[in-house]
Automatic annotation (TrEMBL):
Protein name: Putative transcriptional regulator
Annotated segments matching region Disordered: 75-95
Gene Ontology biological-process entries: negative regulation of DNA-templated transcription
The HTH cro/C1-type domain, residue ranges: 8-63
Key words of the record: DNA-binding, Transcription, Transcription regulation
A Pfam family that the UniProt record links to this protein: Peptidase_S24
Gene3D superfamilies linked to this entry: lambda repressor-like DNA-binding domains (1.10.260.40), Umud Fragment, subunit A (2.10.109.10)
Superkingdom assignment: Bacteria
InterPro entries, per database record: Cro/C1-type_HTH, Lambda_DNA-bd_dom_sf, LexA/Signal_pep-like_sf, Peptidase_S24_S26A/B/C, Phage_CI_N
GO molecular function, one term: DNA binding
Length: 223
C-alpha cells in the first residue's frame, strides 16, 4: 500500500521535476536525512509545505491530499496534466518557478540566497532543481543579456569554463553577471562586461570559490 508520504513525494516530483531525495533536499534547503526521518514518521513538516508554496505556488491541500487546485498563486497557469491526477502521466510543457531579484538576501553565513519576488512559468526543459531564476536589473551585459531579462543560474555548475557567463555574489550588493576568463599566468579570473564602459574585475582562486553562485545556462528576454 502506498503511504500518504509517498504520495506527497510523487506530487512534488510531478510539479517540480525533482527526481531524487537529494534534489528535493536542495529545493527545501534541508539534508537528505531529514527527508528520511519524515518518511519514517509518515508526516510532512509544515515548513516544507510553506517552502513549496513560496517557491512554486503549490497548494498544500493538493500536496497532502490531491485536492484541486494544484496552484494557489493568483494568475498562475498550472502545468498540463497536473490539475487532473488521471492525466498526471502526461509530460508538462511548463513549470511555475519563483523569480528572485539580483539583490536576493544573505544567510547567516553570508552566502547569497534567492529572495522570491514573484512567480512565472518557464518551459519545462529549462527547469532543474539546481537552477535559480533571476530578473536582471543591470545593463552591463547588453546586448547578450538586456536589463529586465530573465536568466537561469545553475548553482551546480560553478567550475569555470573559460569565456562562459557566471553569476557572482558581491557582499551587501547582491549578484553580478559577468563573462569570465581564466588568467593562467596569475592564477586569477577576469570578470568582464559586454559593455566596454564597465571596467573588469579580477578575482583570486579563493575568492572565486567563495563568490561564484553558478553558471548562466539560459536567457529569456524581448529582442
Amino acid at each position: 500500500m502506498v503511504s500518504s508520504f509517498d504520495l506527497f513525494l510523487e506530487r512534488v516530483r510531478k510539479a517540480t521535476g525533482v527526481k531524487t531525495q537529494v534534489e528535493l533536499g536542495k529545493v527545501l534547503g534541508i539534508r537528505q536525512s531529514s527527508i528520511s526521518d519524515a518518511k519514517r514518521r509518515g508526516s510532512v513538516p509544515a515548513d516544507w509545505l510553506m517552502k513549496l508554496f513560496r517557491t512554486y505556488g503549490l497548494n498544500p491541500d493538493w500536496l497532502l491530499e490531491g485536492a484541486s487546485p494544484v496552484y494557489l498563486k493568483p494568475g498562475a497557469s498550472p502545468s498540463k496534466g497536473l490539475e487532473d491526477e488521471a492525466g498526471a502521466g502526461q509530460p508538462s510543457s511548463s513549470r511555475l518557478v519563483g523569480v528572485s531579484s539580483m539583490l536576493g538576501r544573505e544567510d547567516e553565513s553570508g552566502q547569497w540566497q534567492p529572495e522570491w519576488t514573484f512567480h512565472m512559468e518557464i518551459p519545462a526543459m529549462f527547469h532543474r532543481p539546481s537552477v535559480h531564476v533571476m530578473q536582471v536589473d543591470s545593463v552591463d551585459m547588453a546586448p547578450i543579456i538586456l536589463k529586465g531579462a530573465f536568466v537561469g543560474i545553475d548553482t551546480m555548475r560553478r567550475n569555470i569554463v573559460d569565456g562562459e557567463i557566471y553569476a557572482f555574489h558581491v557582499p551587501r550588493e547582491g549578484l553580478i553577471i559577468k563573462r569570465v576568463f581564466h588568467d593562467m599566468h596569475s592564477a586569477s579570473y577576469r570578470l568582464a562586461s559586454m559593455d566596454p564602459r564597465f571596467s573588469e574585475t579580477t578575482l583570486t582562486q579563493a575568492l572565486k570559490e567563495q563568490r561564484c553562485v553558478g553558471r548562466v545556462v539560459w536567457v529569456m528576454q524581448d529582442l
